[in-house]
Design a protein that fits this description.
heterodimer; A: alpha/beta; Four Helix Bundle (Hemerythrin (Met), subunit A); 434 Repressor (Amino-terminal Domain); 8-stranded mixed β-sheet; B: 301 residues; alpha/beta; Rossmann fold; 2 domains; 45% helix
């Protein structure tokens, strides 16, 4: 939707080639674009003003490095600044010496408190704790019922009783002690920060349960108002950390930066999906890239590392060097790619991806025919695709529900890929660098930039090797 | 909508009391617009128009500048059809209003309020509990059905929402009910499988005797620039015969957020804002009034 910051900076950067230093005018020109990017990401206007001033100071007069173009250099400064702002001390949960450790959830209506409460309970369970959930949202119809259902799904008991939320919270604390639960999570009703009566109520709840941690739940899609909301809740409750919800959408999540900046409390957790296990501790280093619209390279690399077995990658690389890369290896790589999540997500995380590709017209379905074709081959055919004569191809097309044309295309692409690998293997045999490059190709650790350019890969991928030997869609 | 008019203590007060239009004036004016979430592009556009006016000496003092901004914004919102469409037809062919949006914007609550208002106007209403995903969403809707004196059709948890909505429309048709209000699960517009599910819901809703006369996108006033993407994607997913989303419901405008993103949604995508939620009670859902909205957005005290 938004033009990426890097593409907008490109035009400016072209003029700066061959200069030694960034002048004030150069920097200001770039800062206009960076400011727009931050505002489009919903970073608060006041926060943007301060950030831009700090970046300006650092960027003016900075000696241009030889490795980076001026645009990259400014982005690096911006990225460092944002990461520093988002980071700082990360929230380490320490448990109360006299259990239970009490956690209070607060936030606006619809920010995702109830779901986050359940996800947090699940997280504590995964840390070996025994949480109890308390439903103190007696306002919204069926909110307690929702919490009970979620509690059943994660096998965590839920306490609630109708009437007064303050009393319910207090009784919940007693219940946790009685049952010997060592973590208590109190869900509260959503409330507007300007509703004095409701803010007083949550203050009373806080007073009776004396939370060790008070978390403010903020929707990642929140606009400029995030700052006002955070300030109001912080002055009423003394917030310890923020839970950023709905981060699985395409909102750039500038609210995270704003909130961190104005209340000085870390973003503790982020909710990354509707499933109850899609909840993780927050990584500030990746958020900066997202806010800038620069693509979440780090996340991509990490998920690639997790998805791909090191040994498997090494073996595949060695087979490639010897020109023994088979369709089976190819299939393995495709599986690994799929493990990284929906293809459109993976593509969305890559920086420099052309806009038309980010439109995510590529569903995971694009891989299915390829997979079906390979799976319809015999083991021998997978090792020696040269065996594939007309009748074998027709059988495979039939078996995989594709056409002979599609089978032909895949086989041709694979053979071209094999040829190129042999050439690469021959050229770099024994060379340490070459081997690493190929391992990167197989295991994708090299992303981006280290992949082999010109691989039969994604159409329109600008020079950056796509995960090893990616089939052509269409 | 007077409840929505929170005290505006920001830039515009300072602007209008200052003598002469300075570069500071422009900065403050831009920041005021941005703080209301109208977005960089819209703010730039609006200010460019004003700059031309200042250059031509049509606008000479800050007070005029603010007034000109307000009238420009109001003009951009003029002329839209903000009525809720109820098309008369056979008694066994109910109107169907579909409510869509991302998670947590207030779809279910909005349906409850609309149901109560339509009942008060003498129509019979049936609620279709099409949110089969969120735990206890149907219970929440059932509470509203009871409060408003509407009927309700529910499916099983995790069941097919299209089936629930289809059944609801059939039931309404058989019982000669005027209006079906169909709830759907909140979904992020980036989840292609869930948007596909919504496409099916929209298709199936028009299959039986019902006539889909409104597809209302519910947007939370705290929403930032992502609102535009939401409007585009929900519009695309519900597109049928050239019409997707027919209107916007802006919720939670009683908070401190100004909801300026709907200005961008309406002026850039042509989706009229029809209703505004300003509180938790049934009466707190009111027709959208552009003049009041702009006034609250760019207020001079």
């Amino acid at each position: 939707m938004f033009d990426s910051l890097s593409s907008r900076l490109e035009g400016i950067v072209k003029k700066l080639r061959g200069r030694g230093r960034l002048t004030e005018a150069d920097v200001d020109e770039m800062l206009v674009e960076i400011r727009t990017a931050l505002l489009e990401a919903d970073v608060n206007v006041g926060v943007v003003r301060n950030v831009i001033a700090r970046i300006r100071e650092q960027a003016i007069g900075a000696r241009l490095s030889e490795a980076l173009d001026p645009g990259q250099q400014v982005i690096k400064i911006v990225n460092q600044e944002l990461t520093a702002m988002l980071g700082g001390e990360t929230l380490k949960i320490s448990y109360a010496s006299r259990p239970p450790t009490v956690v209070l959830m607060a936030g606006l209506q619809g920010s995702g408190k109830t779901t986050s409460a359940a996800k947090l309970a699940r997280w504590f369970k995964s840390q070996g704790r025994q949480p109890l959930l308390v439903g103190a949202d007696l306002q919204r119809p069926a909110a307690v019922e929702q919490l009970r259902t979620l509690g059943r799904q994660i096998d965590v008991p839920v306490f609630s009783e109708p009437g007064d939320p303050v009393k319910t919270a207090k009784r919940g604390l007693a219940e946790a002690r009685r049952l010997g639960r060592d973590v208590l999570i109190v869900d509260t009703a959503g409330r507007l920060s300007i509703d004095a009566e409701m803010m007083e109520q949550v203050r009373q709840i806080s007073k009776v349960v004396e939370p060790n941690y008070t978390f403010l739940v903020i929707d990642a899609m929140t606009g400029q108002d995030a700052v006002g909301v955070a300030e109001a809740f912080h002055s009423t409750l003394a917030i310890d950390g923020v839970i950023l919800s709905k981060l699985d959408g395409d909102a750039r999540g500038g609210a995270a930066l704003s909130v961190k900046e104005v209340i000085g409390r870390p973003i503790a957790f982020a909710s990354t999906g509707e499933k109850l296990n899609e909840f993780e501790q927050f990584h500030p280093d990746r958020m900066a890239g997202r806010i800038l619209g620069m693509g979440d390279v780090l996340s991509l690399i990490e998920s690639a590392e997790q998805a791909f077995d090191q040994d498997q990658a090494q073996k595949a690389a060695e087979r490639m060097l010897d020109g023994e890369f088979t369709l089976d290896d190819f299939l393995d790589q495709m599986q690994a790619l799929k493990k990284m999540g929906p293809l459109s997500n993976v593509l969305g995380m890559m920086p420099g991806m052309p806009k038309e590709m980010k439109g995510a017209e590529i569903g995971d379905d694009a891989l299915k025919p390829v997979e079906a074709i390979i799976r319809s081959m015999t083991a021998l055919e997978r090792r020696k695709p040269e065996l594939l004569n007309g009748s074998r191809r027709a059988r495979i097309a039939n078996g995989s529900g594709t056409s002979v044309g599609e089978v032909n295309r895949l086989v041709k692409q694979f053979q071209e890929m094999q040829k190129m690998m042999k050439r690469m293997g021959g050229a770099s045999r024994g060379g340490k660098k070459g081997k690493r490059g190929l391992a990167g190709l197989a295991g994708m650790q090299g992303l981006p930039g280290q992949g082999l350019p010109g691989m039969p890969g994604m159409p329109g991928m600008p020079g950056q090797g796509m995960p090893g030997g990616f089939p052509q869609f269409n | 909508m007077s409840k929505a008019r929170s005290a505006f203590t920001g830039a515009l007060v300072r602007i209008s009391t200052r003598t002469g239009i300075t570069s500071e004036t422009w900065v403050e004016l831009e920041e005021a617009l941005l703080l209301a979430d109208v977005g960089v592009r819209v703010a730039d556009e609006l200010l460019a128009g004003l700059r031309a006016g200042v250059k031509a000496k049509e606008i000479v003092d800050p007070m005029q500048l603010v007034t000109a901004l307000q009238s420009e914004m109001t003009a951009r919102l003029a002329g839209a059809d903000r009525s809720l469409h109820l098309v008369a037809g056979d008694a066994d062919s109910p109107n169907v209003w579909l409510f869509v949006g991302v998670n947590g914007v207030g779809k279910t609550t909005t349906i409850g309020k609309v149901a109560a208002q339509q009942r008060a106007e003498g129509r019979t209403v049936l609620l279709a509990a099409g949110d089969t995903f969120r735990a206890a969403a149907a219970e929440q809707l059932a509470t509203w059905a009871e409060r408003s004196g509407s009927e309700i059709v529910r499916g099983s948890d995790g069941g097919d929402p299209s089936a629930v909505i289809f059944d609801a429309i059939e039931r309404a048709s058989a019982r000669r009910i005027d209006l079906v209000l169909a709830d759907t699960a909140g979904r992020l517009h980036t989840k292609s499988n869930l948007m596909e599910e919504l496409r099916k819901v929209r298709r199936v809703a028009a299959k039986g005797k019902g006539r889909v006369t409104e597809v209302l996108l519910v947007i939370d006033a705290t929403t930032g620039q992502n609102g535009l993407a939401q409007a585009r994607e929900f519009g695309a997913a519900t597109m049928t015969d050239g019409t997707g989303v027919t209107g916007v419901v802006l919720t939670k405008l009683d908070g401190s957020a100004k909801g300026g993103i709907v200005f961008a949604i309406e002026t850039e995508l042509g989706l009229p804002v029809k209703l505004v939620g300003v509180g938790e009670t049934i009466g707190d859902l009111v027709p959208f009034d552009p003049a009041e909205f702009v006034d609250a957005l760019v207020q001079i005290s």
